[in-house]
Amino acid sequence: MPASKHASIPLKHAYFACRIPDASSPSLPRLFMRKPNLFISKKNLFRIIFTLGLFFFLILNFYTPSLADQGPGWSPPLRIPGFSEEAKTPILIADQNRTVHAFVSDWVGDENPQLGIYYTQWNQEYGWTSPVDILIPSRGQARLKGAFLDQTGMMHLVFFGGDEGGAQIYYTRAPAVEAGQVRSWSNPVIVGEKALIPDEAAIGGDGKGNLFIIFAGRISGHGLYAIYSNDVGDTWSLPEPIFLTNSQEQWPSPLYTYVDQSGDGYAVWGVAGKSGNSLAVYFTKQNPDGMTWSEPNQLAQAIGREADTPTIIKYNDELFVIYHNDNTLRMRRSKDEGVTWTPVVRLFPYVGSNGPASMVIDSSNTMHMFFGQRVGNPATHGMWHSTWGGGSWTYPEGIDTGLSSETFDPSFPHAVVSQGNTIPVAWMHDPAQRNGIWFSYTNLDSPQLPLKPLPIPPASLTATQFPTSDQGLKIPTSVNNSGLITQDLEPIKNLTASQPYMPLVLGALPIIILLVIIIIIRGQRR
């Protein structure tokens, strides 16, 4: 029998040898024999319009976003509107009424700009409000250093005022419900003279009218000084040193303080040398009298470049201190209020010193950590999130990641827990990048805490200045603050905040398109 003319085709190419029938072949499927009709009948058009209309009607009228609907993922990172590219990471304060208050150091004015302090706020429904410049210096700069919301609804601020030629530490306060009204803030008063540069200060309190401020000064040498108030900031004590460097070439920086649920204060800080890098990390805690601090305890010495950017939190009666050393994150823990500490542990294979980590605890008693670092080769930079569980931190997830560029290197995060089950986190980019301040949030599968509206403010506010000197600060007069807070603060809505059903709409869009195609095809076959 003669060989087939296709027999010489290799097996791997044999599938090209199949015979495709022409249009006259009786075995050709009906689908190939029909001439396509692209015209949509009125009946099919009605079906499509009815389906789409019903879908969007149900979404817009009956869909209420819940925790389960939104899932545990992070919202797309967005730049917080209204601030310059040089703005610093905001200090976030969450109240119990679904509002996050934010204070930002940023430049005010186009000609001869001055570094002042802005206020804005965020909630999940409206997004961010328009920033209000609540404090503008008449000379030097106003550098925001700390904020504290007490149980009476009073917001307390501490800031550095001045410049390299001379500076002081200032204090001011306002009812949180009126924080966006300029004239609600008390006249700033000097509570500490001879402030140091690098500028460091922090404020905290026990919720019972007792406040403390720690700041870097040079009153009796370079060091940290503490002052106290037992009347919600009406009067302040004289500064007392709690740590001295004993060197004119060393400075306490950076500083971080924490107040636990019992009102006890803790502080950690680095000591910078002439190179600007930190040489060591120290710890102290507030004594039971509330007016003194324990003897500082050195937790780390620099390995390689620096021991820097410490942060502290108390979780399940155990202190956690996270800091950078040898360009990586390290951790030590203490179960006896800082008397003894665990050996040093390196946390992740990530590197880089992009500001202190930020740690918070949600209503289900889960501890979260946020930090900016890089990993891999080529390096992936990012803002990372990890949780504590089972005696270790989970492998970090990226909130915002990418290759480093002229505008991207997430750094200096600050997170808070709002209502127990929402975590917003803000960050800036490395100061060399200058790309404004950014923000993301997530909803957790945790209980929502009961709502508690902020108290109505008292009739008037006073504060005793110490010591007396020229304040060099002014209250802005260019901002309209005669009305309610809603007149000063105009909500800035965005897609994810003001339209929470959009993720569901976008996710269902491919299904809608597929249904429309099926309707068209079925209609053409009839």
Write the layout of secondary structure elements.
Layout: H1 30-33, H2 42-62, H3 67-70, E1 78-79, E2 91-94, E3 100-108, E4 114-123, E5 127-129, E6 132-137, E7 141-149, E8 154-163, E9 166-175, E10 189-192, E11 201-205, E12 211-217, E13 223-229, E14 240-244, E15 251-259, E16 265-272, E17 278-285, E18 297-301, E19 307-315, E20 318-325, E21 328-334, E22 345-346, E23 358-361, E24 367-375, E25 380-389, E26 392-393, E27 397-403, E28 410-415, E29 422-429, E30 437-443, E31 473-474, H4 485-488, E32 491-492, H5 495-498, H6 502-525
Antiparallel strand pairs: 1-30, 2-3, 3-4, 4-5, 4-6, 5-32, 6-31, 7-8, 8-9, 9-10, 11-12, 12-13, 13-14, 15-16, 16-17, 17-18, 19-20, 20-21, 21-22, 23-24, 24-25, 25-26, 25-27, 28-29, 29-30
Descriptive key words:
12% helix; disordered N terminus; five-stranded antiparallel sheet; 526 residues; seven-stranded antiparallel sheet; mainly beta; globular; Neuraminidase
Quickly describe the structure.
The chain has 526 residues and is mostly beta strands.
Report on the structure:
With 526 residues, the chain is mainly β. The chain has a single domain, classed as 6 Propeller (Neuraminidase), CATH 2.120.10. 12% of the residues lie in helices and 39% in strands. The strands form 7 sheets. Strands 2, 3, 4, 5, 6, 31 and 32 form a 7-stranded antiparallel β-sheet that branches. Strands 23, 24, 25, 26 and 27 form a 5-stranded antiparallel β-sheet that branches. The radius of gyration is 30 Å and the shape is globular. The two termini are 50 Å apart. Residues 1-36, 60-71 and 461-503 have low confidence and may be disordered.
